[in-house]
Amino acid sequence: MSVRSLAVALLIAATLGTGACAESSPESAGVAPAASEQEAGPALVARARADLAVFAHPTDANPAAVLPATTTFGSATTLLVEVRDGEWLQVLLPTRPNGSSGWVRAADVELRHTDFEIDVDLAGRTLTVSDEGVTVLETPVAIGAPDAPTPAGRFFVTDVLDTPDGDAYGPFALGLSGHSDVLTEFAGGDGQIGLHGTDDPSSIGQAVSHGCVRVDNEVITQLASMLPLGTPVTIR
Amino acid sequence: MPKIRTRLASTVLAATSVLTLGAVHAHAASPGPADDQLQVEIPCWQTVVGCPPGDPDPDPDPDPDPDPDPEVEVEDELEEAPVEAPVTADANFTG
Q1: Total count of domains within chain B
Q2: Do residues A222 and A124 both lie within one domain?
C-alpha cells in the first residue's frame, strides 16, 4: 500500500474514531490506553530497520500500510514517537492529513532519543531551538503568505538535504512531516513543507513563502549539523 | 523423653519475635545439637501478643511492587539519536 493509500486509510480510521489526528489523544480516539506518553522529557524517535509496517491499531491483524525504509530523498525513514505502549509505538506519520499517526512494532525500529526541539511561532515569526528545554537558538523566520499559510501542528524532521544548487532553498533544507493545507503539488513534490535557507535574506521576518519556514543561511547551516532526523517541530 | 521447647522472644522490645521449635528427640539424655532446632521468624504483628507500642511499622507493605517502572529504565538506556550527514538532493518543498 502506498503512503497516499495509508493517508486515506488513516483518514477513514479517524472518521470512525479509531485513527488519530493532531488533536486526538489515544483515549479520545478509542484506542488502548497509553502506557507511556511522551509529553515530557526527551523526545523518542524511531528509525525504521527496514520497510516499516504501520497499523491503524495494535490489535489489527494486517498493517494499514508499509512505509519504505528510506524517504523519497534517500534519508532513513525516522518517525517521532507520540505514545509508547509496551511493544507498540504510536508514531506521527509524514502523510496527509497533517497529524496522522499509526502504530508500529517497537521491534521494527531503532529507538533513540533527542533533547532538541524546534518551536516556530507564526505570530511572532520566530524559530526557537531548545536543548533539554533550554533555548540555544532563536531567530526570525519567513512564513507562508496568507494564501499559502504555514500549517500549524506538531511535526518532525524527515530529511536533512544538502541542496546542490542552493538557490531558493539556501545551502540546506530540512524536510518536515507536514504538508501545505493549500498546495497539493509544488516543484514536483506533494506540497511537503520544509525549513530551509533562502536566496532572499530580505524575506526573513515576512509572510511571503508558499508554506515553508525560511531562516538565514547561516542558521540553516547550523541546524543541519546539529539536529537528528525525527527532531520534533511544533508550529503554532 | 520428647522435649518440645518453645521460646517466644521478647515481645516488648523486639519488633520481631522468634519462635523456636525444638527438635523432637527420642532420648532425653541426648538433646541434640542446637542446629537441629528449627527457627522460624514470626513478625510481631502475626503473634498472639502483637507488636509493642510505638512500633514504627507494624505491617509494612507485604507486596511491594516488584516491577516499579520498567519503561523508565528502558528509556534511560536509549542512546541519543545521531546527527547524520545531509543527503545531497534537490529539494521540492513548498519553498
Answers
A1: 1
A2: yes
Place of cell 546542490: A164
Q: A107 and A11, same structural domain?
A: yes
One-letter amino acid identity for A148?
Answer: A
The count of structural domains within chain A is: 2
Instruction: Please tell me the distance from the alpha carbon of residue A171 to that of residue A159, in angstroms, as a whole number.
Output: 14
Q: Which of A151, A160, A119 is nearest to A138 (CA)?
A: A119
Length of chain A: 236
Residue A196 known to be catalytic: yes
Q: In this structure, what C-alpha cell is assigned to residue A218?
A: 547561516
Give me A142's grid cell: 519567513
A 98-127 residues inside an 8 A Cβ radius of B: 111-115
Q: In this structure, how many other beta carbons lie within 10 angstroms of the beta carbon of residue A192?
A: 26
CA distance linking residue A188 with residue B6, whole number of Å: 91
pTM score: 0.69
Which residue out of A21, A57, A196, A210 is catalytically annotated? A196
Q: Is some CB atom of chain B closer than 8 A to the CB atom of A191?
A: yes
- Write out the residue range of the structural domain in which residue B6 sits: 1-51
Domain that holds residue A56: 3-114
* Whether residue A68 has a cis bond before it, omega within 30° of 0: no
Model confidence pLDDT, tens digit, residues A11-70: 434 333 332 222 333 332 323 333 444 456 799 999 999 999 999 999 999 999 999 999
pLDDT tens digits for A66-100? 999 999 999 999 999 999 999 999 999 999 999 99
Query: Is the residue at B76 inside a domain?
Result: no
Residues 6+ apart with CB under 8 A from A43: A80, A81, A113, A114, A115, A117, A230, A231, A232
Residues 3-62 on A with a CB inside 8 Å of B are 35-36, 41, 44-45, 47
